[in-house]
Amino acid sequence: MAGYNRNAINAYTNVGFETGISTASPHQLITLLFDGILAAITKAKQHMINKEILEKNEAISKATLLIDSGLRAGLNFEQGGELATNLDDLYSYMLNRLMLAHLNNQTELLDEVYGLLSDIKDAWTTIGMNTQPDSLQTPQSVTITT
Predict the structure, then answer these.
(1) C-beta pairs of 73-77 under 8 Å, 24+ apart in sequence
(2) Alpha helix locations (H) across 50-106?
(3) Cα–Cα distance between 38 and 46 in angstroms, integer?
(4) Around 139, how many Cα atoms within 13 Å sit in the side-chain half-sphere?
(5) How do residues 39-71 score in pLDDT, each as one tens digit?
């Protein structure tokens, strides 16, 4: 019975997440990426502390995928110029730090990447609040499962 309840909760959460994605602005989609990466890093750290190797691997892999295929892939070098290049370099650095954290079980490297991403997310959120119409400024309630 507990497995059924967990599956039902996960299905409900996924529907909420998918609904959030379908109604989100491009700016909000990037915010969702940041949220997903930060959640994955948090889980990776907890799994690392608990010596849960498989779960740690999955969480770090998810964070890596979201950074590489989400944030980096979304950079527009023509319009973004030097800023896009600098972000690409920073995302590459973060990917390297995540790999080292994974290989050496170093939670401080996870903390470093988490801090860097949090700073970028805060700046991104501020930009969105200053550029979006009032109707888009209210964040939607979305849960990201990792």
Answers:
(1) 74/30
(2) 53-65, 77-104
(3) 13
(4) 13
(5) 999 999 999 999 999 999 999 999 999 999 999
